[in-house]
Amino acid sequence: MHIDMNSFYASVEAAFDPSLKGLPLAIAGNPEERKGIVVTCSYEARAFGVKTTMPVWEAKKLCPNLIVKKPRFDRYRKASKAMFAILCSYTPIVEPVSIDEGYMDVTDVARHPLDLAKEIQQRLLDELELPSSIGIAPNKFLAKTASDMKKPLGITVLRKRDIKEKLWPLDVEEMHGVGAKTAEKLKKIGIRTIGDLARGNDVQLEKIIGINGLRLKEKANGIDHRPVDPSSVYDFKSVGNQMTLPEDETNEEELKNALKSLAKSVSLRLKKKEAVATKVAVMLRYKDRTTVTKSMKLENPTDDERTIFQHALIVFQKLWKNEPVRLLGITGQDVMHKKNAFKQLDLFTFEEEAKNEPLHQAIEKLSEKYGEGIIKKGLSMHKEIDSFGSSFGKDFFFK
Amino acid sequence: MQVIVQKNKLVESVQDVMKAVSSRTTIPILTGIKIVATEEGISLTGSDSDISIESFIPAEENGTIQAEIIEPGSIVLQARFFSDIVRKLPQDKVEMKVENHFLTIIRSGSAEFNLHGLDAEEYPRLPEIEEQNVFKIPSDLLKTLIRQTVFAVSVSETRPILTGVNWRLENGELTCIATDSHRLALRKAKVETNISEAHNVVIPGKSLNELNKILDENDDLVEIVITENQVLFKTKNILFFSRLLDGNYPDTSRLIPMESKTDIVLDAKDFLQAIDRASLLAREGRNNVVKLTTFPNGKVEILSNSPEIGKVVEEIHAKNVQGEDLKISFSAKYMIDALKAVEGSEIRISFTGAMRPFLIRVPEDETVLQLILPVRTY
User: What would the mean pLDDT of A199-219 be, rounded to a whole number?
Assistant: First the structure.
């Protein structure tokens, strides 16, 4: 099942301010500046031809009564959290894809999927005042395609046997996963509809769009083996480890050693998830059970054991009041996948990094050709050695 | 002490010296403003021991009487209360009179305040500076020099020397450099000077920010005196002292690339707006990063992708693209800061590779240079 919120930002704004309901509303970068662009807009605005990424002046020309508002991401995050909480009340197998859409695996939910979808849609509307479209299908690709078919407030069932009739006549550009550039390439080899793609020649497809071409062909045939994976995107916003000390500890050296082991396990777990943390937090519980925490932002996101330890130590020294410590923990916070993270280069050390430039370029070329993840830098293959300390990876969505 | 002073003059002076007064000082008397009345006029002083500002109200200026000195003397008054009081007084004229035990009466119209003051003798003396090594810069140029560099100082105390702007004076040319190690801003200017020896000092960024607020946008010359641990900026009625930062500023000249592999010339305003748009989504994400790609046909693509929120792509036309094709990612914030600082209608960006610093300059202008380090993916 794929749940897609309808013009999410605009709907959240309307939920906050009911007087906006039914009016053409756009969320734009900078409403005062006419050159701001529309990030999203309500269906009422869409009826006038207002589109996402359109400059505000153009949108206003099409729809003079358009209400333009600044994005309020704190609101959208909160609404997103509430929405996923509703999804999670049915099954733990929920995979958020972005702030406003996600997949649910409802195979094991003992309900008819159509009834379930109706109930979820109604609850999102009643409890959060947010409209959504839901697609029901045997796999992720078809579910996503289905939710797209009827907006707003649609529920669409797409069976494998329907694809010939419902999917294949469509323009290949309308297929999820095919961008303008890919569509152009496909058109050059005579593939215009999704049906053409489903019957495409493997060798030719691989040659012009790489390995992704074959995957697209499979999808066009209604085949998609990807599982709904709750851990794929947001399952970790933080990665932490904690340990209870053998005795209430006041010796700074011993506490340092404990921090060192914790830093090591946090680093290992980050590496295993191919993730990096942007903040390091330290948690202390004293003998009398009072618990204190403090965090520090890192200059660059990291998975490095030494960097984590060094920063944890700085935080610890600010935090610790020389009293006996019972429990100690380190958490890497604001964790993100490595591929979304950046390292800001430094004027005084960039030459070191620049030496690796040819390597980075080679990796990028290979990835472009054969798909992401085909090659990686020499990371050691980590075995599951969570040396010690239990995980307390708190989750953004399931708190 | 007893004086009668024009309210607007007093308000202005108090506002200037307040820039140096901090409530978080370790020396209690520095939470006050020192007021000294002499035959020539009234001087006000504020200080946080890093910055000290003295503002002078001449008894007479351009034939108008601004202050009437009935009895010379001095007092220190609590800055917070004094500045609020002065601002809200009802009439154009203010009378201040110090009575026994430093009790000060402030009168304007029918309003009368009694404020407990402190002994001005207790107030630390301003540094004594011998005015030998003087050079002069017009006020508006000095403001520009500050504005074009100070934003790039480091806000982190990990390398304290980088929280200041490096000023080098050599052969009648002043070079100002600031870097937080992620970007660097440089501005050169010719100055009027009789100094033959070279100077190389580091002025705290905070001091320059405060100085910039006080200076007027005109071409009156500001005299600048540099000593071993202090710098003094002197205008007609203001003395602005700042402590200098200890330590050697790193030599950045060898880090600024001399040659380039890709050069693009762009309309500065269009480019700034495009980067600003691209950063709309990125600003919310933790990585405020945009990716720039050049194409052989003179097109430049700007892209920003925040997985949680969405992505934005924009194509802009460069006036000129030379050299190798390039893909590079950098902080949108640093680019916006740099573009706002260079103030040209056209800019040239010179790249030497995706992992190396690149330069933003105004074509045909050697005095301004902005450098940015790119980001790389993991």
Answer: 86
CATH classification of A238-398, choosing from 3.30.1490.100, 3.20.20.70, 3.40.50.1820, 2.40.50.100? 3.30.1490.100
pLDDT of the residue at A114: 93
The minimum CA-CA distance between B279 and chain A, rounded to whole Å, is: 9
- Smallest Cα distance from B169 to chain A, Å: 23
Pick among B270, B273, B291, B378 to test the A interface (most A CBs inside 10 A): B378
Residue bearing the bigger pLDDT, B287 or A344: A344
pLDDT reported for residue B291: 92
Domain encompassing residue B310: 256-372
Helix, strand, coil percentages (3-state) for chain B, rounded to 5, are 25, 45, 30
The secondary structure of B82-113, three-state, reads: HHHHHHHCCCCEEEEEECHHHEEEEEECCEEE
**Cβ atoms within 10 A of the Cβ of A80, count?**
25
| Confidence band of A392 (pLDDT split at 50, 70, 90) | very low
Q: Does A162 touch chain B (CB under 8 A)?
A: no
Per-residue H/E/C for A56-123 = HHHHHHHCCCCEEECCCHHHHHHHHHHHHHHHHCCCCCEEEEECCEEEECCCCCCCCHHHHHHHHHHH
**β-pairing verdict for A67-69 and A25-28:** parallel
Q: What is the pLDDT of residues A72-114, one digit of tens each?
A: 888 888 899 899 989 988 887 888 888 889 999 998 888 899 9
Q: Which residues of A are catalytic?
A: 101
Q: Which of B93, B122, B151 is the last residue of a domain?
A: B122
B40/B16 same-domain check: yes
Query: What ipTM does the predicted assembly reach?
Result: 0.84
Total domains present in chain B? 3
Residue B282 at interface with chain A, using a CB cutoff of 8 Å: no
CATH of region A2-73: 3.40.1170.60
Q: Which residues of A touch B371 (CB under 8 A)?
A: 347
**pTM exceeds 0.90, yes or no:** no
Does one domain contain both B291 and B248?
Answer: no
What's the per-residue H, E or C state across A295-323? EEEEEEEECCHHHHHHHHHHHHHHHCCCC
Task: CATH number of the domain at B39, please.
Answer: 3.10.150.10
Does A234 score more than 80 pLDDT? no
What pLDDT does residue B219 have?
92
pLDDT band at B51 (very low <50, low <70, confident <90, very high): very high
Gap from A110 CA to chain B (nearest CA, Å): 32
Six-digit token pair at B250? 């790193």
Tell me whether residues B280 and A30 touch, CB distance under 8 A.
Answer: yes
A370 confidence band (pLDDT: 50, 70, 90):
low
Does one domain contain both B199 and B222?
Answer: yes
Name chain A contacts of B369, Cβ cutoff 8 Å: none
Does any CB of chain B come closer than 8 Å to the CB of residue A149?
Answer: no
CB B111 within 8 A of CB B96: no
Residue among B179, B183, B286 minimizing CB distance to A334: B286
Evaluate whether A2-73 and A162-220 have a shared fold. no
Q: Which CATH number fits domain A162-220: 1.10.3720.10, 1.25.40.20, 2.40.50.140, 1.10.150.20?
A: 1.10.150.20
Q: How confident is the model at residue A375 (pLDDT cuts 50, 70, 90)?
A: low
The answer to whether residue A235 scores a pLDDT higher than 60 is no
From chain B, pick out residues whose CB is under 8 angstroms from the CB of A347. Answer: 179, 181-184, 252, 255, 357, 371, 373
Q: Is the peptide bond prior to A152 cis by the omega test (within 30 degrees of 0)?
A: yes
Q: How far is residue B347's CA from residue A150's CA, in Å, rounded to a whole number? A: 48
